[in-house]
Amino acid sequence: MVVLDAGIEIHGYMVSREGNHVRVVWAVASGRHRQRTFSAKTVFLPAHGHRWDGYLIPFDKLAAIRPAAL
């Protein structure tokens, strides 16, 4: 997912959605993971104008992060 919110652009993974709020997890250069809830209107699927350029999170690590986010 690509998040465009308040002048920031985050490239991450959607881990949950509740109503019009989306929980996104992303990796930073240090290898740590961050997560935050955003308004759904600021979260987009990657596209030509907004290509996904984030750090990959292996599926097994993403699966371990996901339950904690719910």
Structural summary, described in words:
By secondary structure, the chain is an alpha+beta fold. Helices cover 16% and strands 43% of the residues. Strands 2-1-6 form a 3-stranded antiparallel beta sheet, with no helix packed on it. The chain has a 3-stranded antiparallel beta sheet with strand order 3-4-5, with helices on one face. Strand 3 (13-18) and strand 4 (21-27) form a beta hairpin. The longest helix has 11 residues, at 59-69. The radius of gyration is 12 Å and the shape is globular. It starts with a strand and ends with a helix. 16% of the residues are buried. The model has no long low-confidence stretch (mean pLDDT 89).
